[in-house]
Amino acid sequence: MAFTIDLTGKVAVVTGAASGIGAGIAAALRQAGAIVEGCDITPGAGITVTDITDDAATTAFIQQAGARHGKIDILVSCAGANVFKGAADCTPAEWEGNLQLNLTAHWNLALQCKTFLEAAGSSVIIIISSNHAFATIPGCFPYNIAKTALTGLVRSLAIEWSPAIRTIGLAPGFIDTPGNQQWFNSFPDPEAERNRTIAMHPVKQLGTPAEIGAWCVFMSSEHAAFASGTTYLIDGGRSALLQEEG
Hints:
Elements: E1 11-15, H1 20-31, E2 35-40, E3 47-49, H2 55-69, E4 74-77, H3 92-120, E5 123-128, H4 143-160, E6 165-172, H5 178-185, H6 190-199, H7 209-219, E7 231-234
Parallel strand pairs: 1-2, 1-4, 2-3, 4-5, 5-6, 6-7
Helix pairs in contact: 1-7, 2-3, 3-4, 5-6
């Protein structure tokens, strides 16, 4: 018999669902049978336009989603953005904006969903972090600070809100998204930079949004019932390999 995961009847909230990793997660959950309520700051098909740094807008979105279905089984808190400035170049405003988007908003989303998740029972919060939570490179401050802090948020929610709600983190590495392609395009030879980046991964490929979506499907299922309080690093082995200079 084939191993399958069926999330039919489950209600999932996915933030940042209009593109990139968030879109991949939303698509995978729908493929598994879940009802997906997606939001993003950018309009899209089936997307509620919501700025998750706006507490009132976030509350309205969650209350509407929860009331529509009577519960929320799965929260995938994915929305975020790179804030790469460097420790000496980051302004106080950039620091605060980064923390609001990449840390505080995840906590607020979890708080807004808590009552609906508890009503569902056997529910899960999945917080999308980053490989920068485990190791980083120069110039990625203060993004890496917020992502590191998310590992603590995952642990605290897992301890305090169990057993009704499991909380886990996923920390993707270099995922092949339009945003990352824009980064490649900033180099004189985008294809060469892409190939150089791929070569730095032992698996010799970049990750895909669909793969992160598949992780979310598994972590949302009964098969992952013993997983909580941990942030899983998904980076193609890049952090395991010491990089040579030059």
